[in-house]
Amino acid sequence: MYHVLIAEDEQWIRQSVAEMINRMGDDFVLAGEARNGQEAWTLIEELWPAILVTDVMMPQMDGLALIERVVEQQIPMTFVILSGYDNFEYARRAIRYGVTEYLLKPVQMEQLHEALKRSAAQLGSNGELNRLLVGFRNLLDRFDPADSGLFYRKALQLIDQVLAMPRLDGPAKLNLLRLFEHRLLSLLRDLQAPASALDIGRSTDDPTIRRHLQTLLETWVLHKSESAALDNHRTAMRKACEYIGQHYKKDISLTQMAAATHMSVSHFSLRFKEYTGKTLVQYIQETRIHKAKELLRDTSLKAYEIAEETGFSTHSYFVRVFKNTTGLSPGEYKKRINP
Asked: Where does the Response regulatory domain lie (predicted)?
């Protein structure tokens, strides 16, 4: 399976090529679409596709400049160039970058399929490099905090596999590891985690490189796990607030809510206050008062009926809480809202 990236500024051509690739079956998978060279470069750094299908003339960065950057960075990819009659000779200049596949617009599906198959065959040893890149990316993308130990072992095994590969020459191996580092540093920046780069191009000492990548992995796993835990807490608190919004009439206890979110009472109290800025009791009362205001505005219910409808134990308690919250009694509030 080969992942293909399309870079084309003309929407109808880009969509047409994408549709063709989607119809080709399992051999070729559409990795992404870009509207210009700069956007394509960002996706290349993110997705590491095996094959780039690119227009020559594009805004921000043209197809040749894009290919040149890929080649300079030694990213294992092959290229298919899309070209119009008016710039076909210009496209042929890409031969110095090893480009052998040129397609004239409009592109036919059979021509594209054959070009992609030749490009896949051309990958050769680069195909193995690309599979390692994609494997590393997929490992990071599918990280599960619950299996962090397994993830960590698999990532180190993959790094060790690259370091031990006898078929890779020095520059190819170092560049592959540099791409691993680039991916990890990018992910750490997203998490605002501290990290520094190693000049892997100069450092040929395998143990030093391994320790560096191991440190980056450890840092990312720790911060990612912490971030996932925070996300889980936010989700739990959001669901707690939704539950209160639907069941505010009931007697909702702190113990009950803590058990529902699989937290201790103290932990739930802390997280709930962080999320809402209020204690559970304050939040429930605020929800009930908000509903009471609606009923005072929109119905002819008496105050004691509203107290019962909104979950207050007694009419007097409702009046006291309402006045403490709004500065008005329920009757005064109703008169001012509906004079």
From this structure: 3-120
